[in-house]
Give the backbone structure.
Amino acid sequence: MGNPSEVSSAHRLSDAPGGGTIAGFVLDDHGVVSAWSASAEELFGYSAADVIGQSAVALWPEAFTEYSGSTQVSLSGHPAVVDLPGSCPAEVAFRTTQLLGTGGSSSEGSMVIAAPVTLSAGTEGQAILEALFTQAPIGIAVYDRNLHFVRINAALERIHGFPAEQALGRPISDVLPGLDARAIEGRVKRVLETREPIINAVHHGRTPAEPDRDHVWNVSSVVLTGPDGNVLGVTDLIIDITERHQTRERLSLLGEAAVRIGTTLDVERTAEELVDMLVPQLADVATIDLLDSVLDGAEPGPMGAGPVLLRCLARKAVNTVVIGGAPPPGELQNYPPNSPHVQCLVDSQPRLIPALDPDTEWLRDSSDLRIQVMREYGVDSLILVPLRARDTTLGLVHLYRARHTDPFEPDDLVLTQDIVARAAVCVDNARRYTNEHRAALTLHASMLPRSVADQSAVEVAHHYQPSRVHAGVSGDWFDVIPLSGARVALVVGAVPGTGFQAAACMGHICSAVRTLAQLDLAPDELLGQIDDMVPRLLEREHSSGSGPAPVVEALMGSTCLYAVYDPVSRRCVMASAGHPSPAIVGRDGAVSFPDLPTNRPLGLGDPVFEPLEVELAEGSTVVLCSQNVLRHADKSDALTARLSTVIAGHSRPLDVTCRSITDLIAPHLTVEGGLAVLLARTHSLNSEKVATWTVPPVPAAVGDMRSLVLRQLDQWDLEGLAFTTELIVSELITNAIRYGHDPIQLRLVLDRTLICEVSDTASTAPHIRRAASTDEGGRGLFLVAQCSHRWGTRHAPAGKTIWAEQILDPVGSGEVAAQTGAS
């Protein structure tokens, strides 16, 4: 045989299948087995008879090769796959040693040593590493202790767009200037120092592979150590997670939009919340335009061709220079018919324009300063999404990106549509709320006095502040009602609930109070009548068979305070149905609260409303408030003290005090609570403007009374009212003498009108009628009605009073007198 060949150093002997036996046998010069050992028989399972005389090439062709042109054999350098007894096929390595004769001469044959083999540990690791670098789809980088690249796999070359031969031996900052090299080097250095791996670190940036697009990578770093335990470097495993990251960001943005958009029922605030979500997370510039009718709360009509006027409600930009030349929010925006903005509104389809062509007609010819500034800034990517809810277009959302950012993609359009769809529902809810808000406020305002009727009893200031929810209307109300005899009724009340229901119920209560007030009922009687009205209204609605009555249901539990002030006697009679007592401020600024029985609210089955009568000094101030004022004052001693200080400010104008009370209480109100404040500063009629006489119950007294009345009219310079006043006095006194009971009293009151009153102790009231031409009587009250501006009857605990008022207009009165005399 030729020179013996050595088995590759990549293999070693082992205790592999075959029992780990090391076998020996002899080949002659022709490569034929000439001797066979017991160990060989154990390893290969062949007996000596089976193999002696057989060629080694025939037995193990992978391990032995025959020389060309000779019969000699030689090792191929590769192990042979052999079916070893009792195991699967295994690789067997062969090693030959030439046999020497005596004195070192060559002998005929060679000694062969055979044993099973496996890959060495180093070779196995090397093979795995090679496969990882050549086949793995993730990027792999190896850094030395100086943080220089020493190896990069093909996947990382594709990710970086940088060839490996140019990166090896160079630092990270030289190879990838678009990344945060300081952060990467800091991470690698920390792994080198601590030998602790860093898993799933996230890096953002751009690479030469795609210099115009941001990417996100997930990086895990582990330290490399040698057999001796020394640190050799660090390996990075890099995965591009840009798509996953963007998906997560979009989902996060949608979740945030659901929380941040629509926090109020205000259209403008909702639009501002929308642009805050879109910039800078999704766009460089965002604008929200709405139709004018939406801002008014109306239902927008269908879009037509031609120019479209929208009102900019909110606008935001990363760089304020872009929108610096644009009209401020609130201004109208005019878009040409050929613009994608109008087309988007007309067909209600979104638009994605990844790259704006500056030569586009609508863009090139636009004189809009906003468009020009955006073009100069480099805006070249556009998304348009109609703001739609309930199949109705409310406005337009348009987003822009500049050249230095990635252009919009289809995924961006889908995300924008999702966010805008959420916002559209909020905008529509705000629009519908605005509509309801205005209607409810209109209804509520129609129930409140727009101005106080002319009267001299009190000087009045009032204020109403709506609640902040449920269309802005609470059930709080007040009223000032002039009564006969120069008196005035002061009313304040509250209906449970808010919105249209409260306004409608308030209308029932207000109308009932005003109607009953004209009957001159005492406060306790008036509240008793309304208390009886509430269950009857509920019974009527329920008996109609149409189900519950949601409007009148709120009448149950309504509160009301009714007070009547007489400037002649300076006495005030009041009664309450569950409403707090008013505050009374004297001329000295002292604040007191009358011990008024509050009784139960209306409709709760308590027919008794105990009245309270107090005497008020000239210039006293009566403060009537909604329940919210005193409720919040009772909870805070400091607030009560401040409220008392404000109320006690007698020297200030009444409207200033009213506003101060409002400013003090308003911040403490809940969002459901409204606020109603009514202030009345009392006046009195001095004795010079009141004349009173006791009338003897005899017919002859009528003439005497007429004389006294004429003398009083002369003192008041009212001679022009003499004829009609004589006639009124005559008829009223005659009726009192004929049908009434003693004592009889005549009173003249000079106020804004001339008031004539005749009182007696009879409880029956006369009725006006039209007398026939043959009747001898029955014309008295008819003549009184003809001569007076208004007349009526009011009852007292003992008796009644018939009164008549005349306007202080001698000319007009003369004409009435002439007409009366002619009739």
Observations:
- The CA atoms of residues 331 and 580 lie 48 Å apart.
- The chain has a mean pLDDT of 80.
